[in-house]
Amino acid sequence: MTHCFTNNANATPIICLTAAEYNDWLTHQADLTQNWLNNTAYQAKPGQFSLIPDQDGLISQVVLGVEDHNDMWNLAVLPKSLPAGDYRVEQHSNLQALAWGLACYEFNRYLPSKKNKEFAKLYYDSDDTANLSAQVAAIALTRDMINTPASDMMPSNIADAAKTLAKQFGASVSETIGDDLLEQNYPTIHAVGRASIHTPRLIDMRWGKPADKKITLVGKGVCFDSGGLDIKPGKGMRWMKKDMGGAAHVLGLANMIMAANLPVQLRVLIPAVENAISDNAFRPGDVITTRSGKTVEIDNTDAEGRLVLCDALTEACSENPALIIDFATLTGAARVAVGTEIAACFSNNDDIASLLKAESESTQDPAWQLPLHKPYKSMLSSTIADIANSAETGYGGAITAALYLQEFVTNECDWLHFDVMAFNTRERPGRPKGGEAMGLRAAFNLIAKLS
Ligand code: BES
Ligand code: ZN
Ligand code: ZN
Question: Burial, 116: exposed, middle or buried (Cβ in 10 Å; 0-12, 13-18, 19+)?
Fold first, then answer.
């Protein structure tokens, strides 16, 4: 994805100005520029830009209104709006350059005529160019996987994505597929996925040196969430192709980690299933003995994410990694709590949560911690099993889901859990509608700090 950046130092300059700076700047410009901007009613409102011509009608510079010079998305309105060509900015941050790259993203798998469109390029001359391009590519992978319809992003397709990535970086991938899940003792992954013609599986990717700190990522890979027998209404089902967003996040994060060659021993576990309806579907009222030995009563087949994750978390903990991070489109309740554009996060170690908060701020990747409030655990009690998979009411639903997961994380393991939307429901500069990485860059920086 080097195509978003250029090394042409003679590129057209872009001037970023706040409304307050604009008037003073204007008085120092040539008459032609002043006349052009005044006559076109330019005001330097945030996001408003103007292409300023020279005597020959060529673009001499671009002026762009910004609200706050530190906002990483300032330049992101430009790549798709400016004529293709090379541009440069006097002063910009790595984050602003990253946003430029992210703004060049398009999902055109099913629009062949739109492929290979050229966008404006940003002059970027730094040791970090390769790193930046790698981050853009990693997030594009996450977005692409989420945007791909379920019919083309079933468990085997997620496995293919993992294998392609592994090949690129010399990682290894193994899979436990179908009835082997029962044989290898992954009963909940099997139960949720068994009704689908697209065989359920656990994908297991490993990379790095054994001497380095072990980090294990776990991603919810529900390729389509119909709700199961507790079927979702049409509106709630419409976007459930994105329910493998957790899987897309951990592969994007793994991509970043491997591209940056972080000194970690990486493991990625993805339980990949379709939550489908068939004669052999799991049912409300069923009891499943999980990998951990704990029994779970199915209160609601639509609370399937925590079921596939619990067996994967048990396996993750068995190797005692320094840190487990999971990503999941786990609850609608998390969206009620923090909205669609903030990643809700939980941790059994407040130091990790504080570090994450700091990285969330430094990367401008919003994440907000919610509490693992123990007293709510009783909402998951069952009269016939150790735990139920959902509570009677939806109150605190993101918290009860996280508490369910915590039951499967051994106390010695540091654990960070992200409940994410994984999807932009509205368009913003650099963030088109559709699949989105949320909390991923914050998590990457956290791992980089810890490694
Ligand atoms: N995949 C959904 C959660 C979801 C819905 C995330 C919409 C983002 C947007 C999950 O499997 C689910 O259905 N959760 C239920 C849990 C309930 C049955 C306890 C929910 O949130 O309603
Ligand atoms: Zn569900
Ligand atoms: Zn789901």
Answer: exposed
Quote the ligand 2 centre to 240 CA distance (angstroms). 9
Does one domain contain both 158 and 254? yes
Residues 250 and 370 in one domain: yes
Neighbours of 9 (CB within 10 A): 9
How far does CA 440 lie from the centroid of its chain? 5
94 and 152, same domain (yes or no): no
What is the CA(77)–ligand 2 centre distance, in A? 35
Ligand 2 center to 162 CA (angstroms): 24
Mind telling me the catalytic residues? 232, 306
427 — phi, psi (to 5°)? -90, 135
Query: Taking the complete model, does pTM exceed 0.90, yes or no?
Result: yes
Overall number of domains in the chain: 2
CATH number for the domain that contains residue 97: 3.40.220.10
Residue 160's pLDDT is what? Answer: 98
Domain containing residue 326: 133-450
Range of lowest pLDDT (2-11, 169-178, 183-192, 363-372): 2-11
Q: Which atom of ligand 1 is nearest to the CA of 332?
A: 21
From 302, 310, 376, 403, mutation site for ligand 1 pocket: most ligand atoms within 8 A of C-beta: 302
- The region of weakest confidence among 122-131, 180-189, 207-216, 389-398 is 122-131
